[in-house]
Amino acid sequence: MSSSTGDPAVSFVVPARNEADLLPATLSSIRAVAASIDHECLVVDGDSNDATRAVARDHGARVIGGPATGQGDARHRGARHAGGRWLAFIDADTRLLKGYVETMLAFVREHDLAGANSRCRITGDWRTVPFERLFNYGLPGLSPPVFPGFNVFVSRSAYFDVGGFDSGPNEDVTFSRRLGRAYATATCPQVLVETSGRRVARDGFWRTVGYYTALEYRRQVTASGSRN
Q: Disulfide-capable partner of 203 in 43, 46, 163, 207 (CB 3.0 to 4.6 Å)?
């Protein structure tokens, strides 16, 4: 639903590539939690070869096409097409829980924040528990806090002021730190999203740890090289 009187309050930006199976639950959850406000939903398709685009349109989302150049690029492409005063970046395997919009808007306004995320729940078995605790208690304690890319709520003006998402390794860490150094950011202590633990289910606990550790190493090497 888009605003008929001006810009929508919130633009939901969902990067997706070959996500026809999981996307319906995500888009249905967005529609349910945002029903009471003016909003828009943009699915940024990364050259899918399944029914991702058709699924998005069937659920009332606007489809933004483009090459599969990474989630950072996809999020930024969506942001450039979005008109909302707030941008909510939600991954295609993430569902919003009841009260998401009202709680996030109240949280950023009460604490005068330019960006926030919330605690999350991760589906799966015991192997997802350490990641859930990292997202809910570890990353929020950093200075500035780090927001996982599947759950980012940021003012449009602040987003573009700091340059938005890039498409390098661990692009969500880079963006969170850039945003948090320029503006006040924080994590809402309520659990407002549920995201898939499919990577852990597919690759196992230790391979997943290794994957993200390697990404962070590459991110730091890239950042160090850009400063030299």
A: 207
Render the burial of 21-55: b for 16+ CB within 10 Å, e for the rest: ebbeebbebbbebbeebbbbbbbbbbebeeebbeb
Distance of CA 214 to CAs 58, 175, 176, 209, Å? 38, 18, 19, 9
Estimate to the nearest angstrom the gap between the alpha carbon of 214 and the chain centroid: 21
Whether residue 131 lies inside any domain: the answer is yes
Model confidence, pTM: 0.93
CATH number of the structural domain spanning residue 22: 3.90.550.10
The tokens for 96 are 């919003």
Q: Which two tokens stand for residue 208?
A: 């997943």
Q: Does residue 1 fall inside a structural domain?
A: no
Interval 37-60: pLDDT, tens: 999 999 999 999 999 999 999 999
Give the residue numbers spanning the domain of 51.
10-227
Q: Which of 130, 128, 101 is nearest to 192 (CA)?
A: 101
